[in-house]
Write a structure and sequence with these properties.
single chain, 265 residues, 5 strands, globular
C-alpha cells in the first residue's frame, strides 16, 4: 500500500507531461516553377491574359501539377522567352528557404533554337538548316553548359532543402512521317532531333553535377512528335510562328505532367 502511495505522484507527473506534449506538424509544401515558354502555356492556345508577354496559362504542366496538389503553395515564375540570365535575375529570387519543390526548364533560348527553327523553315537548301543546327549545338556545348551550371548553383543556394527537377526538351520530329507539303525534309528533321539530343545530354550532366533529378522528355514524347498521328507538339503555324514547336495540351498533360507526377507523387 505504501509503495502504491509513492507511485501515484509519479504517475500523475507522467500523465501531466504527456498532456503538455506538443505534436510537431510538417511545414506546408511550396512549389516554384522556373523556366521558359515550354514551362508556360505556349502551344496550348489557352492563356490567362492574351496580352501577357510571359504567356502563362492553366494548361501548362506546372499549373496542372499545382491544381492536383491544392495544399501546396504554388509560385509560377516561368516566362516565355526566358534565358538562363533571366532565370537568374528575375526567377530565382522567387525561391525561398522554405521551398520544397522546384522545376526548372531553360537553355533552349540560350542556344538559339528559335532562330534555328525559323532558319530551317524558311531555307530551301537542307545544308543551311544543318549548318545552323551545328552552330547551335556548339553554342550549347560551350556556352549553355556553364550557364546551366551557374543557374543550378543559384537555385540550390536559394532553396537549399528543395527537391529540384530539371525538365528536358523532347525531340521534335518523327523521321519519315508525313508532314504535308510544307514539312521539313528528313535531313532537316534528323538535324533538329540531334540538337535536342545534345541539349538533353548537357542538361542531364549539369543536373547530375548539382544533385538534381533530370526528367528526360525524349522518352515520354517518343511516338508523339510532329508528323505522327497523335502529336504532342504543335507543328508549323505560319500565322503564329511563336506558337509552333511547343507542347500542346496533350504534351503538357501526358508528356510532362505524367512523368513529373511519377517522380513527385
Amino acid at each position: 500500500m505504501r509503495a502504491l502511495r509513492f507511485l501515484v505522484p509519479a504517475l500523475l507527473t507522467a500523465v501531466a507531461a504527456l498532456g503538455g506534449t506538443t505534436v510537431a506538424h510538417a511545414a506546408p509544401a511550396k512549389y516554384v516553377a522556373l523556366g521558359d515558354s515550354y514551362a508556360v502555356g505556349v502551344g496550348t492556345w489557352t492563356y490567362d491574359n492574351s496580352s501577357d508577354a510571359c504567356r502563362r496559362g492553366p494548361l501548362a504542366y506546372p499549373r496542372l501539377w499545382a491544381a492536383a496538389h491544392p495544399s501546396t503553395t504554388f509560385v509560377e515564375a516561368s516566362c516565355s522567352g526566358a534565358r538562363t540570365a533571366d532565370v537568374l535575375n528575375t526567377q530565382v529570387p522567387k525561391l525561398t528557404a522554405d521551398t520544397t519543390l522546384v522545376t526548372i526548364q531553360v537553355g533552349g533560348n540560350d542556344a538559339g533554337f528559335v532562330d534555328v527553327l525559323k532558319q530551317c523553315i524558311l531555307t530551301i537548301d537542307d545544308k543551311d538548316c544543318v549548318n545552323r543546327v551545328e552552330q547551335a549545338k556548339n553554342i550549347a556545348r560551350t556556352t549553355v553548359s556553364p550557364a546551366l551550371a551557374t543557374t543550378y548553383a543559384a537555385v540550390r543556394q536559394a532553396a537549399p532543402s528543395a527537391k529540384v527537377i530539371v525538365v528536358g526538351y523532347p525531340r521534335m520530329y518523327k523521321i519519315g512521317g508525313n508532314c504535308g507539303i510544307f514539312g521539313l525534309s528528313d535531313t532537316e528533321r534528323t538535324a533538329l532531333n540531334s540538337a535536342a539530343d545534345v541539349i538533353a545530354e548537357i542538361t542531364a550532366a549539369r543536373a547530375a553535377d548539382a544533385g538534381f533529378t533530370f526528367l528526360d522528355a525524349r522518352g515520354t514524347f517518343d511516338g508523339h512528335g510532329i508528323c505522327t498521328s497523335t502529336p504532342w507538339l504543335t507543328s508549323l503555324e505560319w500565322s503564329k510562328l511563336d506558337e509552333s514547336y511547343h507542347p500542346n495540351t496533350a504534351g503538357h498533360r501526358s508528356g510532362y505532367l505524367a512523368p513529373l507526377t511519377a517522380i513527385t507523387g
